[in-house]
Amino acid sequence: MSEVLRPRPANELPWVLEALLFVAEEAQPLTTLARAAGVSDGAARKALARLAADYEARGLRLMEDGQKYQLVTAPEYAPYINELLGQGPGQRLSRAALEVLTIVAYKQPCSRAEIEAIRGVNSDRLVATLEARGLVEQVGVAEGPGKAKLYRTTMRFLEHFGIASPQELPPLPDAPQPETAQPL
């Protein structure tokens, strides 16, 4: 028999959400967290923002990809965690895989055709590799002929690169302008 949820003081809501995220095996949508805590989406979002701010000086981070939230360890403590868990350095990504990942990160959602238009070469294998590593995922299909698969980055991508959300990606550098000849 489950216990009846009693309303908690508003100042405890961040800790209720922290407990929910701590026991969750995967990232959780805002609506699921709000429903479990018995509050509105707006109240949950505000409490999650407070929780994220509290974590800035600690060993955890609240990651958010625009749709779901997850507790992760702070990237600066990865060497200690690897030592505890006995993991060596992870398998590195090739330059080509990083190119594809960058395109997906900045254009998401995007199709393989869009990736290939930017890179100028077939990228099927690289997209499949990134998908197998959990760094990109299919999020739907494009409108129009062919119904191309659309890809976006995942929570694992955010964790791998130590950012809390896609909005934290650094701005793209301005494209260099071709030099124009100066009249003599």
Mean pLDDT reading: 84
Distance between the termini: 89 Å
What is the topology, as strand order, of the major beta sheet? 1-3-2
Number of helices: 8
Could you characterize the architecture of this molecule?
This protein is an alpha+beta fold and 184 residues long. Helix content is 43%, strand content 14%. It contains eight helices and six strands; from the N terminus they run H-E-H-H-E-E-H-H-E-H-H-E-E-H. The strands form two sheets. Strands 1-3-2 form a three-stranded antiparallel β-sheet. A three-stranded antiparallel β-sheet has the order 4-6-5. Strand 2 and strand 3 form a beta hairpin. Helix 1 (13-23) crosses helix 2, helix 1 packs across helix 3 (41-55) and helix 5 packs across helix 7 (124-132).
How does the SSE layout of this entry go?
Elements: H1 13-23, E1 28-29, H2 30-37, H3 41-55, E2 60-64, E3 68-73, H4 78-85, H5 95-107, E4 110-111, H6 112-119, H7 124-132, E5 136-141, E6 149-153, H8 155-161
Antiparallel strand pairs: 1-3, 2-3, 4-6, 5-6
Helix pairs in contact: 1-2, 1-3, 2-3, 5-7
Summarize this, please?
By secondary structure, this protein is of the alpha+beta class. It has 8 helices and 6 strands; from the N terminus they run H-E-H-H-E-E-H-H-E-H-H-E-E-H. The longest helix is centred in the N-terminal third of the chain and has 15 residues, at 41-55.
